[in-house]
TrEMBL record:
Organism domain of life: Bacteria
GO cellular component terms listed in the entry, alphabetical order: cell outer membrane; pore complex
One of the record's GO molecular function terms: polysaccharide transmembrane transporter activity
Protein topology in the membrane: Multi-pass membrane protein
Subcellular location, record wording: Cell outer membrane
Keyword Transmembrane: yes
The protein, known as: Sugar ABC transporter substrate-binding protein
Signal peptide, first to last residue: 1-27
Family indicated by similarity: Belongs to the BexD/CtrA/VexA family.
Organism: Thalassotalea euphylliae
């Protein structure tokens, strides 16, 4: 009798799980919101502040409102005078001018200088390498960074990687575009012509070889 009850309970659990999975599989999560990089070319690159960065705000003649602040995950900081100042996605110079405008309510003609440490930057400015990289990573972009620099940062490719079928995904004018990469030629053959410039927001996808 007890065995029959246990078997019946197992059948009910399996049936319930099947119903739950079938109902869940019919629902789709909304597509991720597109946040393309603000950098359109290497020459136009300017560092943008992101969550996790350390922001030093110096207000000339007012040390009591100066200080160093860590950018919160929501992209904001809180100072001694003003709470919830949005800073993510701004250049240090843009942020300095915005803070001057805010502090003008409390101080007479404030002069603000902003410097940044940590250099995490927003997600839209990072380069992501996924697939058969030795160490798939999100890399903080640096001006004039190339494909070779990125490969060094991720430790190269795995032995199963098909580097010459790798793809670079880039957002241009609001549209997603794909470019072929010849990473094997670059790393194994030393073909410098396969080295290309990277831009913030690039995604490199390295597939697995079929043989």
């Amino acid at each position: 009798m007890e065995k029959r009850i246990i078997q019946l309970m197992k059948i009910l659990v399996v049936a319930a799980c099947g119903i739950l999975l079938s109902s869940c599989s019919s629902n789709k999560l909304p597509q991720a919101t597109l946040h393309p990089s603000k950098t359109e070319s290497i020459d136009s690159y300017r560092y943008l502040i992101g969550a996790g960065d350390s922001v030093n705000i110096f207000v000339y003649g007012n040390p009591e409102v100066s200080g160093t602040f860590t950018v919160r995950p929501d992209g904001m900081i809180t100072t001694s005078l003003v709470e919830d100042i949005p800073v993510s996605g701004r250049t240090p110079t843009e942020l300095a001018r915005e803070i001057e405008a805010v502090l003008a309510t409390f101080l007479r003609e404030p002069i603000v200088t902003v410097t940044v440490g940590g250099f995490v930057g927003p997600f839209s400015e990072q380069i992501r390498v996924i697939g058969e990289a030795a160490q798939p990573l999100a890399i903080n972009y640096k001006k004039n960074m190339t494909l070779l620099d990125v490969m060094i940062s991720v430790g190269g490719l795995t032995e199963f990687a098909d580097g010459n079928d790798a793809v670079l995904v880039r957002i241009e004018n609001g549209q997603q575009k794909q470019y072929s990469l010849a990473i094997d030629d670059l790393l194994k053959q030393g073909d410098i012509s396969a080295n290309v410039d990277m831009l913030p927001g690039d995604i490199i996808i390295v597939p697995e070889t079929w043989f």
